[in-house]
Write a structure and sequence with these properties.
By secondary structure, the protein is mainly α. It has a domain at 36-110: Arc Repressor Mutant, subunit A, CATH 1.10.10. It contains seven helices and three strands; from the N terminus they run H-H-E-H-H-E-E-H-H-H. The protein has helices spanning 14-36, 40-52, 57-64, 68-80, 102-110, 114-121, 126-146; strands at 54-56, 84-88, 96-100. The longest helix has 23 residues, at 14-36. The chain is globular and about 60 Å long. It comes from Bacillus sonorensis L12.
Length: 150
């Protein structure tokens, strides 16, 4: 008799592999980010701001796939720490613009080695990592398109 529930095993679930992999990657980031005094979500926000210098909260939420209820408290903590400023846009009072402070900008140099260190910790060759990133990007694009976010 064929097991009709073979597809229900935990190790067959894509969602579980993504979840477990994400948790393990985040664990590897923790000691590196602890040295900077930031959390993983704060690191992602800083990556955006190091790239763009200033962004609206709305745009940051779109790029980080976070809603404002999650993003705003994190940004408030970053502002209290002196890493960013948040100001209402002069062009549109409803929009809040996030900018790096000198302290937030200075973390960029301290964080410079993190991406390379993290790639090395995967113990995977560069071509496999490139294919994995492409596959995950395709999956994310497909999921967001399906759910009306693209």
């Amino acid at each position: 008799m064929v097991n009709d529930f073979e597809h229900m095993k935990l190790d067959r679930q894509l969602c579980f592999l993504l979840y477990a992999s994400s948790r393990e990657m985040t664990k590897l980031y923790k000691p590196l980010l602890d040295e900077l005094g930031i959390t993983y979500p704060q690191y992602l926000a800083l990556l955006l701001l190091w790239e763009h210098e200033s962004l609206s909260v709305k745009k940051m939420g779109e790029l980080l796939y976070l809603d404002s209820g999650t993003l705003t408290p994190m940004l408030k903590r970053m502002e209290q720490r002196g890493l960013i400023t948040r100001q209402r846009s002069p062009e549109d009072e409803r929009s809040v613009i996030v900018k790096l402070t000198a302290e937030g900008a200075s973390l960029k140099e301290k964080a410079r080695c993190i991406p390379t260190d993290m790639l090395a910790q995967t113990n995977l060759p560069a071509d496999k990592l490139m294919h994995l990133k492409e596959a995950l990007r395709t999956l994310l694009d497909s999921l967001t398109k399906e759910n009306g976010k693209a």
